[in-house]
Every structure is written in C-alpha cells, then in structure tokens.
Amino acid sequence: MSEPNVLMQFAPLVLILLVFYFLIMRPQQKKFKAHQAMLAELKVGDRVILSSGFTGRITRVGERFFNVEIARGVDVQVERNAVAAKHEE
C-alpha cells in the first residue's frame, strides 16, 4: 500500500479556507472600506442615521467626533463610528 499524498490530506482544509475568505472575509473588508470612505466624505449639513436609530443633521465635524442635531436645539456628540449611514433625502 502506498501512503496518501500530503497535499491531498490538506486539500480539503485549503479549500475550506478559500471559501471562508471569499464568502465572509472579503465582503466584510469591502463593506468596512466603503463605510470608512463614507465617514471621510461627511460634512456639516449632511443628514445621517446613527447606529442607535436616531437621524439628524451634522452641525460640527471633528477629528474623532461629530456633533449631530437630532431635534431642534438638541445637539449630541457622537463618535465617528456611531454614524451608520448617510441619509439621502
């Protein structure tokens, strides 16, 4: 009897890792890059949806935080990553 090839023993593992990369990791990386690009483009006056579900208008853009007006006269300071999406009107 001959020994099974070492490459053939690891082929299923390599195949699983490739499928995992292309179905899970790569789309997540693309989504993360798109979100970072959206955050970089935000400016004063843009309407946004926060991860908490609130919507509001950006009143001040800082390096790490945004000020968002969620109601007339109510400004909240949120971290950049708390902005889930830009609300297109």
Automatic annotation (TrEMBL):
Alphabetized UniProt keyword annotations: Cell membrane, Membrane, Protein transport, Translocation, Transmembrane, Transmembrane helix, Transport
Membrane topology: Single-pass membrane protein
Transmembrane segments: 6-24
Compartment(s) where it occurs, according to its Swiss-Prot or TrEMBL record: Cell membrane
InterPro entries, A to Z: Preprotein_translocase_YajC
UniProt GO BP: protein transport
Keyword Plastid recorded: no
Gene Ontology CC annotations of this record: plasma membrane
Protein family according to the UniProt entry: Belongs to the YajC family.
Name of this chain's protein: Sec translocon accessory complex subunit YajC
The gene coding this protein: yajC
